[in-house]
Amino acid sequence: MLRLTFMAFAFGIRDLFRPPTKILQRVGIGPGMTVLDFGCGPGGFSIAAAMLTGQQGHVYALDRDPVALRSVKTKADRKGLHNIETIGPEEIHLIADRSIDVVLLYDVLHELDDIEPVLKDMRRVLKDQGVLSVDDHHLSDDVILSKVGTGGLFRCCGRIGRTIHFAPANRSRG
After folding, report:
1. CA dihedral (114, 115, 116, 121) positive or negative
2. What span, in angstroms and rounded, lies between the C-alpha atoms of 61 and 84?
3. Which pTM value belongs to this model?
4. How many folded domains does the chain comprise?
5. What is the domain range of residue 43?
6. Tell me, what's the pLDDT at 9?
7. What pLDDT score was predicted for residue 161?
8. From CA 26, how far away is CA 36, in angstroms rounded?
9. pLDDT range class, residue 93, cuts 50, 70, 90
């Protein structure tokens, strides 16, 4: 609980200087989209995504910490947001194949010991035109590119600000 309290405080300060809504608008998240916030923590990006996607959109807030998920749920309830679904990592299989427009992987990549199964899940759930948006201030761009781009599941397709974007590899880009 103390870790989450500290994390929420630290992310609150971060969000003052880098508002999640502005970042997600630049990523292209808008009405009706479906978003997966992988490693959502206390939910700053999940809440912002839910506001941007609106009632027609859907946000999956995924975290391994049940306290973090309760925090997201509480914040969503306070704001009257009914388009957020909190899930644990063991429930990612419930997300339909190719149903997600954008996966957010923000400040969590450095915590993943075995990235391959995570990337396979993200590849499975992303639509053909979907985007994996990655930002992790704990890692250099080269490390992010290596971790996500190696293995043939994703290819780098650009960046917006500090976020590096990846597309599913070997899928048509229409």
Report:
1. positive
2. 7
3. 0.88
4. 1
5. 2-168
6. 57
7. 87
8. 17
9. very high
